[in-house]
Structures are given as C-alpha cells and as structure tokens.
Amino acid sequence: MIRVNENYLKLQSSYLFSEISKRITAFRESHPEREIIKLGIGDVTCALPAACVAAFHAAATEMGDERTFRGYGPEQGYEFLREKIAVHDYKERGAEIEAGEIFISDGAKCDVGNIQELFAEDVIVAVPDPVYPVYVDTNVMAGRSGDWQDASYRGLVYLKSTEHNNYVPELPETKVDLIYLCFPNNPTGATISREKLREWVTYAQKNNALIIYDAAYEAFIKDETLPRSIFEIQGAKEVAVEIRSFSKTAGFTGTRCAYTVVPEACNVYTRSGTAVPLHTLWLRRQTTKFNGVSYPVQRAAEAVFSAEGKKQVKDLIDYYMHNAGLIRKRFSEMGFLCTGGDNSPYIWIQAKMASWDFFNLLLEKAGVVCTPGSGFGKCGEGYVRISAFNSHENVEKALHKISDVFR
Ligand code: MLT
What we know:
- The protein is of the alpha/beta class.
- It folds into 2 domains: 11-47 and 308-405, Aspartate Aminotransferase, domain 1 (Alpha-Beta Complex); 53-306, Type I PLP-dependent aspartate aminotransferase-like (Major domain) (Aspartate Aminotransferase, domain 2, 3-Layer(aba) Sandwich), CATH 3.40.640.
- The protein is built from 12 helices and 17 strands.
- It has helices at residues 16-30, 50-63, 79-90, 108-114, 133-141, 194-207, 247-250, 278-289, 295-302, 307-333, 355-366, 392-405; strands at residues 37-38, 102-105, 125-129, 148-149, 152-153, 157-160, 178-182, 210-214, 240-245, 258-261, 267-269, 275-277, 338-340, 346-350, 368-369, 371-372, 383-387.
- Strand 11 (267-269) and strand 12 (275-277) form a beta hairpin.
- The radius of gyration is 21 Å and the shape is globular.
- Bound molecules: D-malate (MLT).
C-alpha cells in the first residue's frame, strides 16, 4: 500500500487558472455562438520578436548538421546566455551579478515552485495576500502549512497588501524565515520603491531571513526611479534570490525560458548554525533533477539582448502597455477603483461585488474573461485582475462590451 503525501489533500481542489479554464470550456459548450475574449491568465498573444525567431531558426539548423549538433547542454545554462544576462540585466543597472550566479530554466513558475525544496520543513513562510498561488501551494505540498481554514492555510504568515498600504505589505510583526515578494506585483500590478525594498532587505539581514524575489514583470516598469531588481539594493546578495522570465518580456510563454539568480554570498544554515551556500545546493538540485533548456531556445533568448532584439522587445512591451493604460482608463471612467497598469501588465479592480460574481457577470454578459481576485487570497475577495495581454482590437472590443454591461 503506497501512502499518499497527505499535504496534497490540504490543497484547494484545483489550481486557479485550471478552474478558470474549466469555466470557460463550460461556457463555450453552452454558448457555442458567443465570442470569448480572454483577459484572464497572463498569456501573451503577440508573435515572438523577429530577432528571436531568426536565432531560433539558425540554432535549429545547427542541430540538423552533425558538425554543429549539440547533445546535453550544461544544466545551469549556456554561458553565452548567462553572460548576456549578467551584463544587460544586472551590471548595466549597477547590480554586480556574475554569470556563474545565474541558472537558466524553463520557467519562473518551475523555479519559484522548486526552490522551496532547499529549506527545512519547519521554516516559517510569509507570503503577500493577495499572492501568486504557486508560492503558497508549493509550500503546502511540502508540508509547511496546516489545513485550509477561513480562506487561508494555517501556519503560513499572510502579509496584507491592500489599498491601505498601496499593496506593498508591511514588515512582519513576528519573525519569519522565507519571504516571497513579487514586484511589479502579480496580481495587483503595484510596484515597490527603492526605500521600501531596502526595508525588506534590512529585515532579512536582521532576522536571517531569505527573500525570494519574483521579478517576472520588471520589463514593464516605466518609472525609472523604481528598482527592477532586488540586487540594486546594497546587501541584497546575502539575503535574496531573484527569479525572472522571458515569458512576458519577450513572448516566451510557449517557448519556455527563464532564469534564477542565486548569489554566491547567500547562505542558509544547518540546525547547528553552520552556513551552507545556497548556490551549491541549487546547483546540486538542478544537476540532479534538470537537464537544461534546449539549445535553440537559449539562442532565441540570447537574441533578446541584441540591438534589434532590444528594440523589438521594447515595442512588444509598449504594445501591451497601451492596452494596460486603456483598461485602467476605461474602468476608472466607469467608476471602478483601479491599481496597476502603469508599470505592470495587470490592472487590479475593485469589483463592488464578490470576485467570482464579477467573473461570471463579465463572462456571461460581455464574453470577457478576467481573473477573480479571491483566487489570489483572502484580501483579493471583492477584486478582479484584468490582464493587458491581448491584441489592441480585442481589448477595445472587450472594453466596449464591458461598458455596455455597466451602462
Ligand atoms: C498569471 O496569469 O498570473 C500568470 O500567467 C501565471 C504564470 O505566469 O504562471
């Protein structure tokens, strides 16, 4: 008799975005004639940048020729890509991150879900509320929480992010060990100032805590005063890991490429207090459980840093940010309180009703899919998230239909 990992039984029945998909499928079956516009999951719709496609093709051609063919690549990722990331994403912004501290992967979701394996079962985990569900669910699976009760898991520390603190949580009142932060935030679209981020780094230094900083949406920051990386804050290299993705930046959701920065200076501790470099552990984990991202995909990602690639990526971001501005403007005009959409592709909207009721209303009356805020946590109840990832035409059409609902 194989016993189950009972932690899985504590999980809510389905992952938020799977639940939304199920509801869309049911709606489609019962209303085959209706058009549906998806502004729910943050999945990109524009084609890959031309520079990435050219590099992808060239690398595929290399793979088809014995002289240039490559088998297994380095588990940590090819140096050509790690070097470019270190220079363009970090050193150019004053953050001293070396190529050896970068680990290429097939997704930020996988990295953010996997990294918790390196920590003891009894570490105290703090997550913002509302929160990207992967931080929570993966810790529940690992046994770091109690049961689900009153719309939250016992044992996890939820850090309220509401309009009262501009969706930037206050420092915890009790000591926590592992802290998840995400800015620009998913789902609220809020950003964090350099000063506030410094407070978090100082908290982590004083409390021997570790911050998992999810910067998947940094490319959408327009305000140059905002930090794009936690490593722009002095001292962060001792207390933080950062996760980034090419998914939203360069349209790689279906191509799969991301990376995690684990600084050499970042330590975790044994029960007796001996320091262990997190970098060594993550390398050990990746070399055992992961065989790297395919060569053509890494070449395609490298092209993001070429002159044409940078220009094309900027155009992509501007394209979606045009949608974000429009969504925020129109919802504000309809009398809804909105956050985000200025430095982020998500707009967080006070729904003036229960989140799932708003979801159903929008789907049934306008054929538009949003994401119910309650799916991101207790503080998300009464809100919905609208994503800017769609064509200008579809966003215009969706907003038109939505304004008819609230006329
Ligand atoms: C979202 O919609 O929150 C994201 O697409 C989820 C993800 O990146 O996994």
